[in-house]
Amino acid sequence: MVAVGHPATSTERVARENQRTGRRTVLVGFLLVLHDAVPPGLRDFDSQGLSVVALSHSDPLSEPSLARDLAQRFLLWDAFVAGRRRVDVHPLVLPHRLHEAAVHAAEEVVRAVSRVADRAHEDAAERSRYRFDADVVRLASAAHSAGDRASLVRVDLLLDETGTFRACEINADCPGGHNEALGLPRLARAAGFLSARDPTHVVPGLVARLRDLADGGAVGLLLATGYAEDLQVCALVARELEREGTPALLAPPTAPRLRGGDLCIGGRPVRALYRYFPTEWMSGQHNVEDIARAIETSRVRTLTSPAHIFAQSKLAFARAWADHRPASIPETYELSEIPAQQLTQERASWVVKRSMGRVGDEVFVGALFADASWGQVVQHSRALADQGQSWIAQRFVQQQRVPTPWGDRLVTLGAYVADGRFAGYFARLSSHSHVSHDALCVPVFAAPEPS
Question: pTM for the complete prediction?
């Protein structure tokens, strides 16, 4: 049987048909050919360990219909970095036991980090450890006093050599990956992967939560408008909101202003703010007080709330470790708590990070440096800490390598946690222990529970 349709809708329709009939799809040019048998090119996943399944087509996204859906349906416009694919649809499959372990670890880490981070709201001495300026503290305190607590967090999990998930950090302020988390599993289905289940519902959940916060009003989506990778996230969320009947306004973070008691964008009131822009980057904006007052008086609700900025800081990992040493968090300290000599002598055992670094920036993995260069890293980071920045040292997690169609790789499993509950995955593959913007993103599925 051959199904031919408009490229923009063909993958969705055929994926639904596959699920109904149990057949799989082989992509041939612009045609979608349905077969009743699974061809030998589709290797089943390892039921015991983590692995990336090799689909029968070595490069599914080279098919025009999938490439078109990637860009037009899921708005993923930065699919290449340095001439290589940044996304692919060969799926990472979690055995049931590892899926359950990842969910448990992610939720446990969010609880542990949030518990110690929340102390900063009530304790001035604790708050000063984070070294935030007055604008950041103003936004955080306004949200805290108003009970504005909605959150979307992504926990970065590493599978160590013992088979235990360790969280190296979390993004509690404005995590990304929405387009990949929504689109890649659906494209994997269209490319013929019918096994396992897709546990990710972060985008529908986010849209439902924003509609609830807006309570019939409009949602303002704040972003750095000059960056396509930020725009693609907010454009996707805006489209999904408007499909559900909720007006969405995309704007720079400097746009919202108080007008007659309402927080307005271009003169139009908004009742909820989705902020895809770091809280600390808002420092110095002329409208910080307007936003804080609107939050404080409950004229607007936010997601993620600025109240969670302390949990965003990697310093919160050090505070959680000092508090009760959660099993899912590696040994972590404020940089000043470890002698420089120990860090240099034990180079391969440590990672040094700026507490507010993002997207892999200012993360230094000792195992990737020569001794002399590592000594300079330690010296430089301690000097910056002495000048007022917050830095941590974290025990290096020796990861398991995972079989993939591109050779063995290291996996950073991003687990989304929405308002304290697991909401799905965003996975990145890399050849070395430092994940940044050039890592390869793949869809994540969970194998069924063994009978």
Answer: 0.89
